[in-house]
Phosphotransferase
Amino acid sequence: MEHFLGGDWEITPAGGVTGKAFFARHAGKELFLKRNSSPFLAMLSAEGIVPKLVWTKRLENGDVISAQHWMNGRELAPEEMSSERVARLMGKIHSSKPLLNMLKRLGKQPVMAPAILAEVRARVDLLSAHPDVAEALRFLEDKVPAVQDFQLVVCHSDVNHHNWLLSDEDELFLIDWDGAMIADPAMDIGTLLFGYIERAQWSTWLSQYGEGVTADFFHRMKWYATAQLLLSIEWNREKTRFHDMNQSLQSLHELINVQFILDGNGASEQDAFKK
């Protein structure tokens, strides 16, 4: 990497589980470099969803290096996830036809609920004796037929607050798109609503996003949020991050007991939910 940029550049790892990301600094210039990033990055940059892509170059060994402007800023705090800006950017992503068409051209196939259920079953086998995990698995199995007929969009699949960047220039970005997929938008929205946003704010947040509060959307969100939480619990177990695992197990206990309240005319005017 140093040979590629020149010896005057200071290059340091940017962290992350893949080891493919780096910071590069020289003479007041700062770049964020990534090895073998998807061509999807260029479309995300053009849409203003990630920091601007500066260049993409191929190395002699076949690796492709992409460079983005390094944005000084910070990740969002959990309480900031309820903001209108997050809702509108999420709505922009899910409604973008150029992003969807690009993923299709890259050969991405839709990720359907039965495939996600199969992955969950295979991954959480060692935890299946835990009562909350067992109940969550039964819920996923019982309800999977109800989440197979939906609109397919570009999903980020990991919309936790660590992946939202607010720049010093007050620009909001959603970064780290390695897990991008074509799937039900309820996959992303379930994580956001169940993980960060008070029930009383759901109707307003979803209106800003561009979706209404319906029983169908609620149940799809709950299904995907449950599946993702189970996978997170298993990941923390594998990494021996037992404190995080136990916190997620508590969140799972709360999630599987959330219900959607309907009145005779559909959703109540207060969009009431209970645990």
Notes: The chain is about 40% helix and 20% strand. Residues 262-275 have pLDDT under 50 and may be disordered. The longest helix spans residues 215-238.
